Amino acid sequence: MPSTPSRLPCLPVAVDVVALTVRDGSLNVLLVTRLIDPFKGRLALPGGFVTSGEDVGEAASRELAEETGVERVPGHLEQLATYGPKGRDPRGDVLTVAHLLLAPDFPVLVAGSDAEHADWFPVAEALGGTLALAFDHERILRDAVERARSKLEYSPLAAAFCGEEFTIGQLRAVYEAVWGTRLDPRNFHRKATGTPDFLEDTGRVSSGDAGRPAALFRLADRARAEPGRAVLNPPLMRPRPL
Amino acid sequence: MPSTPSRLPCLPVAVDVVALTVRDGSLNVLLVTRLIDPFKGRLALPGGFVTSGEDVGEAASRELAEETGVERVPGHLEQLATYGPKGRDPRGDVLTVAHLLLAPDFPVLVAGSDAEHADWFPVAEALGGTLALAFDHERILRDAVERARSKLEYSPLAAAFCGEEFTIGQLRAVYEAVWGTRLDPRNFHRKATGTPDFLEDTGRVSSGDAGRPAALFRLADRARAEPGRAVLNPPLMRPRPL
DNA sequence: AGGATTATTGTCAAGGTGACGATAATACGG
DNA sequence: CCGTATTATCGTCACCTTGACAATAATCCT
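ok -> structure tokens follow
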């Protein structure tokens, strides 16, 4: 049984998860509608308080599973940053450890109206102010998107948005959605296939889509083992935002 | 008066600071000798518990000032990551928000033997196991060094290790100390002076050292305003570790 | 079958990097 | 005072990567 040292100053500690995915060519974020105060009825990042005996990463994983109804949420989960504890919750000081999930577009279970349920929303709307997120969640989302954008430059994490196997075109679509830019398919193909320890040809090809069938790739073992490592070296350069 | 919401699970929250500097051509870290249990007598990162009414960044700043005896510690302070709360403190669950300070080599006040005082130690020794840091501080230090190394690749933060004004040679010495490599002085000079929004020539020159006097530079306004922004684009590439 | 669409392979010029020569300007030892 | 050691700065050159874009291949759709 985990003990809590007494006689030490103590704070409520929460975790929040910014779960990002690519849907219909644009970046989306998982949000829940709050059923209780504070911010009752407003949209917020999925999250909750850390319970005793778990590390913050485990708490983030647990909350994500609880609020999506998905037992083993796919994708890459990493810690983002810690916010607070001052002035971010009307109930008082609350520290929150934000996490970032980069995941393929998985279906969330839509619960009945009596349970808090999560759904995907375009990041552009969430940051546009039209959705009015609870707490400081808009700021956290903004940081998360920036982190995701810069991670794609040098790490193999774009693949976390795809399934186990994917085509170069799908991978490029991830970059275009996250960066909000267009990339030249030919130059992207050259960089993606030419980078050592990044992709592995499965030998199979995709089918059913429009156009010529594309070769299916998966992450190289090295890239899967260390998802944060800089394999794109020199990095893939992010073009002008327009 | 900041309130703490009741009826919420609660954790002791600490901050730790990995303060790095360059001394005698090698990377050093600020450590304190613990005067109380747990880990009494062992070396540890400066840090302490977050007190009510302050954000974690403020707490890190305050602890740093308290343990060094320096009122306004110079350099660049940023959040590193959050660790725990499970299994890192023998007293029980304690969450710690680690911070990273990149600073010029400032003198620490050496207090009497009855007060906890900080001093600089070579990172190589601290990570070599010879110093046996308290808690999970060796792991935190390892992460901090890796963060610092990668930040130098694309951000102007190397200048945080220097004073207000510095020569290209001093800046290069920072890179060599942090990365543990040698860099070609001519190519480094070309990259440093050729990168827009990075350095600003002060017009003055250094003197007194060996060799030809060097031009003194300072950080460009743009780089000082956003110390984390990627100005080195494409990044400065880190050579083989040996 | 013909057109549309996406994948892949190349070509080429421009820009950045790594390796290294050459010169400049100062401190120091004799 | 002079030659030497040391560090700063400027240049050169081959090589690599990128950005722009032509050309061909292999499917789907109508």
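Chain A has two domains: 13-128, 152-225.
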